[in-house]
Structure formats: C-alpha cells, structure tokens
Amino acid sequence: MKMIKYGGIALKERDFKEGRVIVFRDAPKAKYLWDCGVAISRFLKGLKEGKIIGRRCFRCSRVMVPPRMFCEVCFRGTDEWVELSDTGRVNTYSICYVTWDMIRIKEPQIPAVIEIDGASRGMGILHLISGVKPEEVHIGMKVRAHWKREEERTGSIRDILYFEPI
Amino acid sequence: MRRVAIVGAGMTKFIRRAQETGKELSFEAANMALNSCELTIKDIDCIVMGTAPDAFDGVHMKGEYLADGAGAWRKPYMRSFVGGGTGVFAVIQGWYHVASGLFDTCLVVCEEKMSSCQPHPQGAFLTIFDNIIERPLGPNLLWIFALEMNRYMSVYKIPKEEIALVAVKNKRNAKDHPCALLGEDITVEDVLKSEVLAWPVQRLDVSPISDGAAAVVLASEDRARRITDKPVWIDGVGWCLDTTYWTNRDLAYPRYVEAAAIMAYKMAGITDPRREIHIAEPYDPFDYKELHHMEGLLLCDKGEAPKLTAKGVTSRDGELPVCPSGGLLGVGNPIAAAGLMKVCEIFWQLREEAGARQVTRKVRTGVAQAWGDLMQVGTVVVLRR
Q1: A103 to chain B: nearest residue by CA?
Q2: Cβ of B154 and A139 within 8 Å?
Q3: pTM of the complete model
Q4: Which of residues 90-149 of A touch B (CB under 8 A)?
Q5: pLDDT tens string B285-296
Q6: In whole angstroms, what is the distance from residue B122 CA to residue B294 CA?
Q7: N-term to C-term CA, chain A
Q8: Can you tell me the ipTM of this complex?
Q9: What are A16-46's pLDDT values in tens digits?
C-alpha cells in the first residue's frame, strides 16, 4: 500500500501566544424579540398566577406539559386546558459544577426533569432543584415548586425559583 | 432502487485546533477519498456536504462557504445537517442520489471546525434549548447528557464503573488510529477520578472537541464494479427523528435509534441483528452513549450493553467489535466528520484495510450509526462486503 499522508496541521497554544498565527476576531450582532405563541403564552400566564397549566388531547387522552396547541402524536389540534399540580417527581437530575464555558462554580446547580403531577406519565419539564443537599437528591423524589412572591412574578419559567423536596 | 457501494474513503487527522480552514480540511479529506479509488473530481456527478451548526464558524450559509473545498464547483450540491447525526445522514443522502438513478457517483464530504468558536464551542449549542421556557434557566449542553446518563444508569441499575470501561476501551483502540487526538491507555480508576463536570458526567466520559474532515465516494453497482474489486455495499439505510419535547421522552432508551435501525435492517434483509451484524460503530460522544446506542441498534437487550463490554465481547478481538476505530472518545469529535469517520472505519474494516486496528474475527456486515439534534435523531447505515 502507498504511504498515506493525512491532512491536518495541529496548532498549539504557544503558536498563538508567540504570534505565529494570524487570527481575526468578530462577534455576531443579533438580538431577538420572541412572541411566545398561543400555548406557551397561556402557560406563562398560569405561572404568573402560581399555576402549572397543561393541555389535553381528546384522541390519545394525554395531558401534556409543556402545553401545545397540537398533539404531535395524533397530529390534530389539542382540546382543553388542564390545571396541574405544582408538585411532581424527579425523573432524572444532574449535579453540575461548571458553566457552559467550563468555568468551575462553587455551589453546584441541580438541573432536573420533573414529572408534573396531573400530567400524563413521563411528562416532565426542565427546572432546577434547591433547598436540599446534592447527595440527598434521588430519582423518584417528590418535589414542590418554590414560587417567587406573587408581586415579583413576571410570567416566566423563573416565576418558579426552583423545586424543593416535599 | 439501484444498489450503491462505497468505493473510496479518506479523512484528515482529528486535532484540537487545525491551521487549515474548514474548506482546506474538506479538500484534504475529499482528495484522499478520490485518490484512494483512483478517481478525479471529473468522475463525480454530485456532492453531498455534511456540516453541523453555522454558529461554530460564525459563517452564515456554511454549506455554500464550504462547497468549493468539497469539490462542488458547478456540480449538483446539497448540504446535509441533522446536528450530530449529520455524518451518517450525509451518506444516506448520497445513497439516495445514486440509488434513485439520478447520478452514478457521489462524493460525500463532512467537515467540522469547532475551534474557532470562542471562548468555548458549547456557546454555539446554548440556543438549542427552548428559547422561552428553558433558556431562562441558564442551561448548558452538559445538562442534557448528564440527565440522560443518570436516567439510563438508574433505570437499568448500571454502576459508573461499567460505563467507564467504554472510555478505557475506545481510547485504547484509538492508539492505533493515525488520525486520533486522544489515543491513550487509561484505567477505570482514571475515569472515576477525573474532574466531575455535571454528575454523572466526568471529564474522561466525554469526547474532545476537534477540527477535522472525512469523505467517501459512492458509486452505482456497475460503476462500482469497474472502479474496485472490493466495493462495500450500502445495503440498508434508516433515519428517524423523535419529538423536540425532550423532557417528555423516555431518556433511558433511544426509541428513535431503534426505529432507524429497524428501517435499515429491513432494507438489508437482516432479521437477527445480533447474529448478522459482525461489527458496529455506534455514536459515542460520551461513554454511556455507545451502550445506549448498542441497545437502540438491537445488538443486545436493554440495559445489557455494559455486560458485553465488561466481558470483552466489544473489544477488537471480541465477538462483536464495537468502535474499533477508537470512536469519538478516542479519535475525536469534529461533529459531522466524526459520524462519517465511523462509516470510513466500517469500510476499511470490511475491506481488511484497517491495519493495526483490524479486528480479529472475519467481518462481512457492519453497522454505523450517528445521533444528534436535541438528543432526538438516529441515523443508521448497514454496510456489506
């Protein structure tokens, strides 16, 4: 067989420090103003009122959270709003010690998927767990939403500060 | 549909930071693939280019930006993009260009240059989370992997030690790959003692971000037989996308990978994948993902993949070699190029051209699989000698 030479020239940190590489910098300039849509606007209004709102499909009978105006399984419009409990169970969680750009954080964050009581089985939302030692968190743990004070709520997922063990 | 074969393959080294631009890397891989089957760009009817988010490069319409480097000048050209699933999906798109009868040859090129994105290419991924109800929580990409890994470990009661064996195996395999970034001998203990990023994900559970490119040449049956006496047939393709409501999914089992695998196996006439698949390159950006995907590919029962690894079944001299290349964990993870590297590896293994990486058992049928988007896409090809 012929000798194969693979492309790819590895640059090292030193090459940059010592100015051996020519580089250009830029950052994108774009800002966004998002409309929240029909389903999520209602969901956020619910959060402002201290409620978690789901949506039911009459054909498959699923109660979905986050709510949506169409059922992706049946591919038809969903049918009614359902007020859910502000409690649930931990489906899975992580104990995160780094930021997105890999900087260590002192107090770890505990992101979790929380299955909301009153929704169909397996219907979870992403949120954070707090008010508990990281080593005590477990899958299946019952948790409740810890709300912001009513006058501070803005209609945001952060109107729930975190979920805490019941 | 016409039968389609892979007749040539090439790749660049996978490196932390390449001096070459994405276009230049694409050219290197494409040129090597063409040389390997003694074709020139004049013999190529159309081009498929696989590359992941524009945000890595900060270049809008990245497919067009890369086109010249992939040999697409004044040719029918399309870009393939399903996140991490791209590397195998690009082969599927190339396959239907030729299987349909529209073209006789297709050059498939995949490239990724992640190093340009500062301070960390994870920044490019932050916008994959739901813009209204997830991003305000400040998620980072590691979260979803950590959440999925924890669910997988908990449902099937898999200890972290068993998952770490995958990182040990793949990094060791990568020592024999001339393009590898992280080929090394490590121990389970090294993995368990490595820095905890987002528990249960630790530093050595994760593949390294990289720059690199890979390419394959596809040809219709009659052309393939004239080009080489060792064509590798693409006998099955499958792909499937699950819901974007990832917090509503069963995170312990990749059902969409299973659906993609069933589609590909059916096309290839495979009824018993455990017996009929001899070698596999499932997508392994994290060590648990190799196991997750072996199960989705129906190569073992749910929750059983760690046992096969522990028994040595998946090592290069085992009954079912898995990621003999060294995988993303060992060779590197330039997203789209990493998926295509897996197809290249099965091609070389089936032709017995894998050199020091050649598996012990005789292999005739192999499967390559990639995975991505918001943990929701499975892309699968079945290859045969």
Answers
A1: B197
A2: yes
A3: 0.96
A4: 91-102, 109, 111-113, 122-128, 139
A5: 999 999 999 999
A6: 26
A7: 68
A8: 0.94
A9: 889 899 999 998 888 999 999 999 999 999 9
